[in-house]
Amino acid sequence: MEADGFRNAAIGRGVQSQVNTGVRRDEIAWIEAQSHTARLWLEWAERLRLHLNRHLYLGLFSFESHFARYQPGQFYQTHLDAFRGRSNRVVTLLTYLNHDWLKQHGGELLIYPDNRSESPVALGVSVASVLPALGTLVVFLSDRFPHEVLPATRPRLSVAGWFRLNE
Ligand SMILES: O=C(O)CCC(=O)C(=O)O
Ligand SMILES: [Fe+2]
C-alpha cells in the first residue's frame, strides 16, 4: 500500500485476485465513507441504485467503487467487468476527475459492441470513444460491453463503481 492509499490494481476477486501488469497498470484506492465528497458520491449512487431498481427492475443490491490512477503510458487492456454466471457486477459507472483534458492527451475509454448483439458488428471497432474529462459519466451493463483504457500523456484519474447483485 502506498502512503497515499493507492495500490497496484489486481484482476479478479478474493483468492483469485492477482496483479497482472500485462493487462492493467493502474493503481486503485477503494472509496469508503472517508470524506464528505466520498459520502456524497456514495449517497448519489444509492439514489441511482433505487431509481434503477424501481424503473428497470434490476435487483441491484450493493455498490462498490474505487479511484484509479493511471500514470502516463499506463493502460487497461480490453476486458469485461463481469462474466455471466461468475460475477455479480451488473452495472458499471465511470466518471473522471481530470480538468482540461484534450484529445491530444489520449487516455480514451474505448467501448466495444454489446457481446449479445444480434447484428453483425465489425470486429475490433469501438462503438464509443470517451475522453476522461471532468463532468463525464459513463454507465453500461458490466457483462455485455468489453472496454479498454488507452495510454495517456498525463496522469489520468477515474472513479469506477459497480452495482452488484446479492452474493
Ligand atoms: O478508467 C476507465 O475509464 C475504465 C476503468 C475500467 O475499465 C475498470 O476499472 O474496470
Ligand atoms: Fe472495466
Automatic annotation (TrEMBL):
Alphabetic keyword roster: Dioxygenase, Iron, Metal-binding, Oxidoreductase, Vitamin C
Needed co-factor(s): L-ascorbate
Record InterPro entries: HIF_prolyl_hydroxylases, Oxoglu/Fe-dep_dioxygenase_dom, Pro_4_hyd_alph, Pro_4_hyd_alph_FE2OG_OXY
The UniProt record lists the keyword Iron: yes
A Pfam family this chain is assigned to: 2OG-FeII_Oxy_3
SMART domains in the cross-refs: P4Hc
Domain Fe2OG dioxygenase: 56-165
Protein name: 2OG-Fe(II) oxygenase
